[in-house]
From TrEMBL:
Keywords: Membrane, Transmembrane, Transmembrane helix. The lineage of its organism: Bacteria, Bacillati, Bacillota, Bacilli, Bacillales. It comes from Lysinibacillus halotolerans. This is DUF2798 domain-containing protein. The chain crosses the membrane at residues 9-30, 42-62, 83-109, 129-148.
Length: 162
């Protein structure tokens, strides 16, 4: 796991890339936009979403999620509980904010509907949360930790020895 700011930066970069990629595809499919927008529009949506998610991860959601998770697991000696708590807190925070981005993107592509914005937001948040939590815990978390430990952590250790 990341122990320095540089490692945290790389870990967050990889995690955001994977989560935003899958969640962008999921939301395009959910809104019936998968075949409707061009490839460049899809890439553009992904890049904007990735940028927003990474900024949120670095400066807002990430720090608060870690503080809350560490406080919740302070009495536990099992690292898995801390990892699960951080992952869950991150998903709650990121789904909360990124659902706003998703709703705005939907309105840009499809226009407003007759439904309440708040109703649509909470429906979207629920759908995103239900997808993002298992994605994070079962797939992305383990994959990103593996990539991090295999490729990034050894380089950091090697650079510190030189």
């Amino acid at each position: 796991m990341p122990t320095t700011k540089k490692e945290s930066f790389y870990f967050g970069l990889i995690m955001c890339f994977g989560m935003v990629l899958v969640m962008t595809i999921y939301n395009l499919y959910l809104n019936g936009m998968f075949g409707e927008i061009t490839f460049l529009e899809g890439i553009s949506d992904f890049l904007i979403g990735f940028t927003i998610a990474f900024i949120l991860d670095l400066f807002l959601v990430g720090p608060y999620a870690k503080k809350i998770a560490l406080r919740l697991t302070a009495n536990s000696s099992k690292k898995v509980y801390t990892v699960l708590a951080i992952s869950t807190c991150m998903v709650i925070g990121m789904a909360f904010f990124m659902s706003i981005y998703g709703l705005v993107t939907t309105y840009i592509h499809n226009g407003f509907t007759n439904n309440s914005v708040i109703t649509e937001y909470f429906a979207l948040f629920g759908k995103n949360f239900v997808m993002a939590l298992p994605l994070q815990i079962i797939i992305m978390g383990p994959v990103v930790r593996f990539i991090f430990m295999k490729f990034i952590k050894p380089k950091t250790i090697q650079n510190n020895l030189v």
